[in-house]
Amino acid sequence: MQESDGAGAGTLPVPGPTLGVVGGGQLGRMLGEAAGPLGVELVVSDPTPDCPARSVVRDQVVGDFDDYETLRELAERADVLTFEIELADPDTLDRVSEETGTPVHPAPETLRTIQDKYVQKEALADRGIPVPAYRRVDTVEDLLAAGDDLGWPLMLKARRGGYDGRGNVPVEGPDGAEAAMDAVAGPAMAEEMLDFERELAVMGLRGAGERDTFPVTETIHREEILRESISPARAADGVRARAQEVADEVLDAMDGRGAFGIELFQVDPDDYDGEAILVNEIAPRPHNSGHWTIEGCLTSQFENHVRAVLGWPLGATDRRAPAANANLLGDVEENRPAELRGADRVLEADGAALHWYCKREARPLRKLGHVTQVGTDGDDVGELLERVRGLRDATTCRPE
Is the whole model's pTM more than 0.85, yes or no? Predict the structure, then answer.
């Protein structure tokens, strides 16, 4: 089956198209769950044997995210390649795509830009997209100069490889500069420490000749890790409209098809020349902030990612009803076999949905699953948030 220009879903063969996914974690698992009803089969590659996605996809190729032989085999077995983790290597994806003729979406060039936080910020700033003030930092001296320029405290971010708060180090002042550079252990970017009102996110979609965005989501972090998300966001209509506009500008800067997680800060316009929204980071894949769309929207971010990369028409992104989502994190002090106790509390709750990722090992603060609480029109989203927090807190991975 050849890559579609958007009309290729008119006739579905048996078996259907095969989507190759670099990464077989929870995102690969949920992509597999979304692809099945469309007749789309998934093959994933992941270095962990029997990865979380394995039980819901056709097959797994075991190998590193940047291993040529692994990605070459994946490309040979797929009609289209995509990725659910930024550790995929864009150069290797370009090479196997050229050798096999299997297209890659989103484009490896987009992944190449996104992987480096400084390059990502430069690309956004060059297009006039609002971002926090930032500076490139390679040495302690660079960090001290950035602090003098941006002001203390500031946030130091590793340019590559950081996620879920890893690689982000708040620096209170010059005395902490050397320790902060040791912590990021490589090239970094300093960013002004924002006094933001709330964090927001928009899941954007680039399809074959069409684009769309999901409703604005409010995201709630602690210790740099996403804990809860709610939609609609508790922001004024004008702020939500501006968030959608900025998300559209970001999509203009991307290349290739798929879902894009666009993380945003809502700031006081009086402090930023009238601007209420700044872009934090972008993920060229489905994103934790969009998990609520599985139950909360007419078409989930995962189904729409599958549709987009195949070149099929996008599904409607309208919100069905207010929704709140809470991550189930490893609440253990040391690594141990994963289990979820108290799951019955979630399963018994009206309007609640449990997603358990089937990771073999629970680690401190590791994402092991999530709970989504869907309400009805008119429900207060703050009350939904409290309900989903209660359901999450009723579960534990700790041994008895």
Answer: yes
